[in-house]
Amino acid sequence: MNLRSILSVGPTLWGIGIFLVILGGSAPWIPGFLLTLVTGLLIWATLAYSLNLITGLVGYVSFGHVVFMAFGGYALAFGVGALNLHPVVGVALGAAVGLALALGIGLVTLRFRGVYFAIATLVIAVAALYIVLDIEELGDGKGIILNPAVEPLSVFYTILVTLAIEVGVTYAITHGRIGYGIRSIKGDEDAANTLGINAARIKLFVYALSGLFAGAAGGVYAWNVSGAFPYSSFSLTFSLQMLAMIVIGGMGTLLGPLIGTVAVYLPSQVFLTIPLLSGLQFTVIGLVVIIIALFVPGGIVGTLRKYIPEFRGMLE
Amino acid sequence: MTRVLEVSQVHKYFGGVRAVQGVSLAVQEGNVIGLIGPNGSGKSTLLNLIAGVMKPTKGRISLDGQRIDGWPAHRIVEQGIAKTHQIPKPFLAMTCRENVAVAAMFGSNKQKDQSEALETAGRVLTLVGLEGKADSISSNLTVQERKRLEFARVLGTGARILLLDEIFAGLSPEELRDAIGMFTQVQKEVGFGALVVEHVMRAVLTVSGHVVVIEEGTKIADGSPREVVENPAVIEAYLGAEAVHAPT
Amino acid sequence: MADAALFLSDLALGVLLGCVFAVIAHGLNLIWGVAKVVNVAHGEFIMLGAYGAYFLNLWFGFNPLLSIPFDAAIGLGVGVLFYFGFLHRELRGKESMDLQSEMVTLVSTFGLSLVLINTAQKLWTPDNVGIPWSPGYVVFGPVQLPLGGLYVAIVSVSIIALSHVFLSKTYLGNAIRAHSQDIPAAQLVGINPTITASIGTAVGFGITMVGGALLTVWLPTGIFPAMGNLYAPISFVIVVLGGPGKMWGSLVGGLTLGVIINVGQLFLGNNLSLAEAAAFLILIPVLLLRPEGILR
Ligand SMILES: Nc1ncnc2c1ncn2[C@@H]1O[C@H](COP(=O)(O)OP(=O)(O)OP(=O)(O)O)[C@@H](O)[C@H]1O
Ligand SMILES: [Mg+2]
After folding, report:
1. What are the tens digits of pLDDT across the range B187-196?
2. Which of A176, A181, A186 is the closest to B106 by Cβ?
3. Which domain holds residue B149?
4. Ligand 1 pocket, B48 CB below 6 A?
5. Which of A111, C146, C266, C293 shows the greatest Cβ crowding within 10 Å of its Cβ?
6. Of B198, B195, B225, residue with least CA distance to B32
């Protein structure tokens, strides 16, 4: 890559990049409670981008994405708790576990299309919980508790860098030759195969990346909450929330997952603080998902592109 | 070197349905072979077997003497054999140019450079007469245009042997004349070999030098277009037994 | 000897459990077969059926079996609403379901499931409730079976048998089957796709809610808003095992799961959670080897 091509990445990537840099630069001055909020937002954004890779770009709806996150969290908790690793190494371990798991699961489940893939991934996530409940090293159903000696800024910078890499990777694989391959698979996998695209390999590659980033995010999540616990780690709510974020933001776009995360995460946090509304955030999110799925394909980013011509060249 | 595709004694069973039962034929680069037969006789299935979309139950398929049966579709394309879909399957979210560029990037030419592939796509679209639609999103195309796009895509792969599934179906007489003209010219220019599945008799008989007829998965006739249309077995397969014996 | 008795009684319990699993999956099976749609919110309608039985018991003292007609009626109504709200736009004028529409229904019904779970939690609290109904036990040699479970199994198998008869013997049933096999051909012989698909969906919802009511007999304290998160995956696995659209498939899939969970423990060191994992994961080899389901 030369300087020209780095500079010509387009306004969306520039925008996200500048946003992340400003966030990173101002972090030391952000008050504690706000930093917690922003860290949570970045963890969720990393998860949303990870699901966006396989579901948004390739078109394979995964209901079981939480497995990568959960095992990433367990990897960190085990690494930090039992092996005394530095948490950042623990996050890398989480990423590695997510990657390995995605390769294994993907090798089998990516043969199934449409609802069959969705169901297979869901079922694997449910079964994984039952298996973890039974593994002694992983706390035998009680989970792993870490010392809560968390340095908020290190957590923040770890997830910030992870997200930045992930957005860059998303950009890289949506542009260029492999990007055409991915779009073709999403468009019509049979046609893609008969034009010389090795769909199985591309799908596995993207799924592996997706597992890697979800694993890393899961690691950061566990670090942030000082532990990994089976019922909360494997809660399907995580899978569902990630899906809601990309649906609302705009599936398969570069900006959508970030917008979707903001649109889902911030209001949820506000709802939580209002007793009357607390608990209703998912009802509202669900309604919005229904409306967008049925009437507004493309989500927020897709709609902006559709109705505001100036955005068409800018947003991706 | 001219390339030769050989199909010998190929079978395909779907459970109890014997879609293809021991068909043999050969296609050489530069020659156009017609493949005709009544509905459900196994034509599309045969093309799918050659293209690697499905694996044959029995039999062998080879290219220049090398066995390729059972290979995945994308490897067959790399070897220079590409197939159109009877029901067109364009990438609906892409423009026509991008559709063909994908073929150029991943087909047997493997043009790694995007802008080169897009240029190739433009040339191919001009060949098939879709240059006016190059930058329209393919979901806006009519069925006929989609068929042309299918043809453009297999050309874009750089394949030397094309498997064409009913690309002339559903045209009005004038459109058919144009399409046949376009096809013959492109064939001359590019010099590919083709196996052309077609119901429209006029098209098959005009474009192909040799015709294979299958019925219920077996080959019932094989010869020049003229020989084939005069063959009683073929007439019977198409028109029923009465037609053969009917007084003329 | 004791082992044999244990095995027999686990097997018998597995079969009973399998029957109720079959009926909760059956509605999904019907909708999947007829409308070619997977309702991700399926578990939530099981939950609603269970709450239906719970409130009928709380207010009128009905036992779960008595709540069947009420749940069925509500289910039929909800099914029609669901069809026109979520499916009609996607199915209208289509000859078959494409991947795009499949995606839309997956995502929109997933949104519905979020709405239903969380509204139910707000209305009824996230806590467990149950129906105190236990008609006793019946003893066959070494095997002791709960009578409630036995009644439920009988009702479940009858529902599946009835739906089979409905689809194969009645005019409407035949129309639904024709529609599910070949929409253009069905239309040619005068079958209205909207009417058949909406009725098929409605019947599916009726059965699903009845399934929820029947399930409560097995759950003395297991009714809660998020219960669908367990029973939806169970239903998905069952339908895939049996083959979508095959009426007896629900029973085959249900029994397979019920028996694996109950008998599997014996072979997995009395470990329930591994047996449950195995029951879910059986889906994968079946999908790989027999994508049309176990039944031919
Ligand atoms: N995937 C499949 N599964 C089961 N049966 C199939 C499958 N594909 C084709 N068949 C059956 O194989 C037979 C041959 O079908 P094929 O599509 O090859 O015929 P065709 O000659 O191309 O017909 P048409 O002229 O109508 O296109 C038919 O009986 C068809 O129903
Ligand atoms: Mg055909």
Report:
1. 999 999 999 9
2. A181
3. 88-158
4. no
5. C293
6. B195
Question: Considering the entire predicted model, what is its pTM?
Answer: 0.92
Pairing assessment for the beta strands B193-197 and B32-36 based on DSSP bridges: parallel
Same domain, B69 and B104: no
Q: Please report, for chain A, the start and end positions of each structural domain, with discontinuous segments joined by +.
A: 19-234, 236-316
**Residue B9 sits in the same domain as residue B52:** yes
> Among partner residues C113, C118, C287, which is closest to A280 by beta-carbon distance?
C118
Alpha helix (H) ranges present in B52-172?
73-78, 96-106, 114-127, 143-156
Q: Residue A232: which H helix or E strand, with range?
A: helix A230-233
Mark whether B151 and B192 lie in a shared domain: no
**Residue C197 falls inside a structural domain:** no
- Co-location of B74 and B165 in the same domain: yes
Do B108 and B74 belong to one domain? no
| Ligand nearest the Cα atom of residue B20 | 1
Mean pLDDT of chain A: 91
Q: Count how many pairs of residues, chain A against chain C, have C-beta atoms within 8 Å.
A: 125
Determine the residue of B12, B14, B147, B220 to mutate for testing ligand 1's pocket, defined as the one with the most ligand atoms within 8 A of the Cβ atom. Answer: B14
The token duo for A21 is 């840099």
Q: Does B55 touch chain A (CB under 8 A)?
A: no
What tokens appear for C42 in the block? 């399926």
Tell me if C190 sits within 8 A of C33, measured CB to CB: no
Mean pLDDT of A18-31: 93
In angstroms, the CA C84 to CA C62 distance is 32
Q: Which of B51, B77, B94 sits opposite A183 (nearest CB)?
A: B94
* Block residue for tokens 């098209």: B203
What residues in C contact A109, CB-CB < 8 Å?
A: 284
Number of domains forming the structure of chain C = 1
- Interchain contact C58–A (C-beta under 8 A): no
Residues 6+ apart with CB under 8 A from A7: none
Q: Which two tokens stand for residue A80?
A: 């930090």
Cβ-based neighbour number of residue C77 at 10 Å: 13
Q: Which residues contact C45 (CB under 8 A, 6 or more apart)?
A: C27, C39, C75, C78, C116, C205, C208, C209, C212, C228
Please, which pLDDT band fits residue B248 given cuts at 50, 70 and 90?
very low
Answer for the pair B167, B150: CB distance below 8 angstroms, yes or no: yes
Instruction: Indicate which atom in ligand 1 lies nearest the CA of residue B166.
Output: 27
- Alpha-carbon distance A240 to A263, whole Å? 15
Structure tokens at C279: 């029951």
Return the residue in C96, C99, C271 with the most chain A beta carbons within 10 A, the one to mutate for interface testing: C99
| Range 183-222 of A in CB contact (< 8 A) with B | 183-184, 186-188, 190-200
User: Along chain C (296 residues), what's the average pLDDT of each consecutive run of 10 residues?
Assistant: 78 93 95 88 97 96 94 96 91 77 88 94 93 88 89 96 93 88 84 89 96 94 92 94 91 94 82 86 90 75
CA–CA dist B195, B203 (Å, integer): 13
φ/ψ of C139, rounded to 5, equals -115, 125
Per CB-CB distance under 8 Å, the chain A contacts of B152 are none
Mean pLDDT in residue range B165-180: 88
CATH number of the domain where residue B13 is located: 3.40.50.300
Radius of gyration of chain C (CA): 19
Tokens representing C176 are: 């639904």
Residue of chain B whose Cα is closest to the Cα of A184 = B91
Give how many domains chain B has, as a whole number: 2
Q: Tell me if C13 is assigned to some domain.
A: yes
Q: Whose CA is nearest to atom 19 of ligand 1?
A: B40
Sheet holding B17-28, edge to edge: B17-28, B4-14, B58-63, B66-67
**Atom 30 in ligand 1: which residue has the minimum CA distance?**
B40
| Contact between A213 and A86 (Cβ < 8 Å) | no
A31-52 mean pLDDT: 95
| C176 lies in some domain | no
CB contact under 8 A, C274 and A131: yes
